Amino acid sequence: MTNRKDEARITCKSYWLLFLVSLKLGLTSFGGPTAHLGYFHESYVRRKQWLDETLYAHLVALAQFLPGPASSQVGMAIGIHRAGLFGGLVAFLGFTMPSVILLIAFAYMYEGISLANAGWIHGLKLVAAAIVAHAILGMAKTLAPDRSRQLLLLVALGVVLLWQTIWTQLIVIVLAALFGLLFLKTDQTQQAQKPFGAGVSKKMGAALLTLFFLLLFLLPLASQATDWKWLAMVDSFYRSGALVFGGGHVVLPLLEEAFVPTNWVSEDAFLAGYGAAQAVPGPLFTFASYLGTVMGGWTWGLMATAAIFLPAFLLVAGALPFSAHMQHSKLRGAVLGMNAAVVGLLVAAFFQPIWQTTVETTQDFLLFAVLFVMVAVWKWAPWIVVCMGIIGGWVLPYF
């Protein structure tokens, strides 16, 4: 029998191995959420054999059902499966840390060297425009394939563009969920999955889900009751992370609405950072690390990172013990409605501010078209497209 020292040594070794495997993925996982899931499958299922195909498919389906960054949530869930709640945190840190460090460094470079008017920064903005346009097309095809959801997309787009308040996006998402709950039909033949909750009891899961909702409703009240700017920032990032359905690109309109109109971040800095986020491996949600650093230095960057990922961690850890009950067809209908609506939000963000502030000349449009073809037709890797955008933005003023 092993004694407590041996058990502690084994536990530390498990955490360290989990961190190293997730860190390798964080350093090499380019290409966005779908590509990340492919990397996870290759590493965790095929090479390490830490879980089987069925369980991996279940975790992917659960992450798609929940709001938040799907690929990061799958990584968290695998960490929980491997080593409990702390294992989920370890897996998250390994996968996320490289892009956090790179984007914080880029924020300091942007601010310290006055890059706002640099040609290559404009090229990064055009890269962001091309990548978001490609994401919109792919998401619209997948998330709004029928007339009902296409109509929902258009209504969401119109409401967000014509009625711009701090509550508009939240109201649109809630109403879209209600519409889906009532009117969108889903496949009734899907078999319910067995509950999965290794390392998380139902009691702990309920506590984590309760904390998620308490923070969602109490942070705005606390922010309004004080004049602490850091708390307002944390509230904005937490709400953005809690309300995102459909992948990392959908966080763009929520963050833009929270920080650009309030002049916390300029449109130029926002778009330059979003373009840079495409060039680094790991989750796109680490764009928050850049924004926080621009607003208040690296400490704010770390706070922003924690705030935007915290809802994802609370939700996936809290939902795992109840995952079998979350396959109900009515709930899936609500998710379908929200997914269609968030495509409309993304289209609105593409028009304002991305298109209006980035594609201003004929030369801009031509470079945008070339970058879009690279992404959407030729399927070039995002980091290569970013490099081409930087080069194009640098030479653009000479034409």
Automatic annotation (TrEMBL):
The keyword Hydrolase belongs to this UniProt entry's keyword annotation: no
Stored Pfam families: Chromate_transp (PF02417)
Coarse class of the protein's main subcellular location: membrane
Membrane spanning stretches: 55-78, 85-108, 120-139, 151-184, 204-225, 237-255, 298-322, 334-355, 367-396
Keyword set, alphabetical order: Cell membrane, Membrane, Transmembrane, Transmembrane helix
An example Gene Ontology molecular-function term: chromate transmembrane transporter activity
Domain of life: Bacteria
GO cellular component, one term: plasma membrane
Cellular localization per UniProt: Cell membrane
Bilayer topology annotation: Multi-pass membrane protein
InterPro entries the record matches: Chr_Tranpt_l_chain (IPR014047), Chromate_transpt (IPR003370)
NCBIfam families: 2A51
Family: Belongs to the chromate ion transporter (CHR) (TC 2.A.51) family.
Designated name of the protein: Chromate transporter
UniProt source species: Aureibacillus halotolerans
